[in-house]
Amino acid sequence: MELLKGLASISDPDMPGYNTPTGEAAAKSIVDAAASLRGRIYWQLLHNGAMTSQEVARRLMLPHNGVWQRMSELQRKGVIQYAGENRKNTSGRYAKVWEVRTEEGLDPELIEKSKHSKEAMRNEIARLKAEIMRLKAELMMTLSSLSSRPSSDSLKIP
After folding, report:
1. How many percent of the chain have pLDDT more than 70?
2. Buried (b) or exposed (e) across 12-21, using 16+ Cβ within 10 A?
3. Sequence-ordered list of residues with C-beta below 8 angstroms from that of 96, at least 6 positions apart, any chain
4. In terms of pTM, does the model score above 0.70?
5. Which of 58, 121, 126, 129 is the most buried (most CB within 10 A)?
6. Structure confidence by residue, pLDDT tens digits, 73-103
């Protein structure tokens, strides 16, 4: 079961406007932003527990409309589910509370990846720091060799 496969996919073709050339172009233009937002929403629900879309939007400091749309996509793809609870939102109306699907419904590979994601990020940061240091040393050597070369003015023949 590949529940999070949809995090990186384009907006649903069933959405209004998608089947028009401008709607499709607009959907394609936000692929990366939408995928990133779906991932951020998923992370919020995973680490902070069940929330309404308005609560998620507030935590992410983003407009509710965009967050709600991405949460609807996650729900349609089976990544999140209704928690069986409603809470009052800022307008005083009741809103559904959403949660990440339980581990029984998640892909075991995804669970394993999430357990090691922090360690993997730390390792990648360490690797990138080492690469930056190597490039910095290489740049310093290149600059040093350029400054030790005689200038073109000193090579002029009188």
Report:
1. 63
2. eeeeeeeeee
3. 52, 53, 82, 83, 85, 86
4. no
5. 58
6. 999 888 899 999 999 999 999 999 999 987 6
